[in-house]
Amino acid sequence: MEDNVSKDKSKELNHENKQIANSDIFNSRDHIHNVNFHNHNINQDIHKQASQNLSFALVLNVLFNIVVIVGGILTNSVAIISDALHDLSDTFSIVIAWVLERLSGKESNDNFTYGYQRFSIFGALFNSTIVILASLNVAYEAFTRLFIAESPDATGMVLIAILGIIFKGGSLIKLHRGKTFNEKAISIHMFGDVFEWIALLIISVVLLFVNIPILDPIASILVSIWVIYNLAKTFIASAKILLQSSPLDIDVNSLKEDLLSVEGIESLEEFHIWSIDGIDNVLTSKIRINSNNADLDSLSSIKDELDNVSIKYGINSTNFEFIF
Length: 324
Hints:
By secondary structure, this protein is mainly alpha-helical.
């Protein structure tokens, strides 16, 4: 008889704990929704701004393509025409980045429940690969020119180099403060182009007075090495995000310590943290709660503390399951 009473009380206690946990989740849902909605809007604004920045860079690059092609024909310079082909590949990369960035701003649906934000990361990965391959080709072509004395049209190069600095510099100014990996990948490329045109301007001025044709390919090789090195880092960072590694800017051990420091928590189980696009971070975990904190008020307080800790680490979306 006593055993049956104990079993009934145990069932009632378990049922009560489940009701409390469900009530806590339900009551805190509005708070969580408001925080996530605010963070979602910020994320959408970031991708919208990135799309506008890439649009600006795209227009400047198309205009510069026209300038370089016309300049190459008028000066009959093979060096300028080859640079025009290189700039066309730049424009293609920006078009791809712009299209994917536009897609990343779309709202979530049944097919993409997290939204389309990772299209931005895919753009960074794709463009990093394309530009690295293009830079390797430029470096190879420049290396072969080391052994062939070809003097570029120095006079024509001075004017084109000045225009290159203006157009590419404008794109770089617009993109270098961008927060998406897509913008960072293109801005690294633009920085390399600006540096290359500055080098070509200096070389062109030198070539007006001294015939040292080897300077042109040396500058191309150095710039290509710099671009490959920096884009390789962007490629690796983008790949880690797609593979759901922990966010690079979050100290996971420190985060766990701060979560465990919340009063009433015994342990963290099935702890998972990842980044959707390098900006929006997600955290899920089962939280083992001390039985003394199994009432509604305690659980609500614990949930608020967990959210506060998460926000401090730049985590936009959380999902905690309480275990008693």
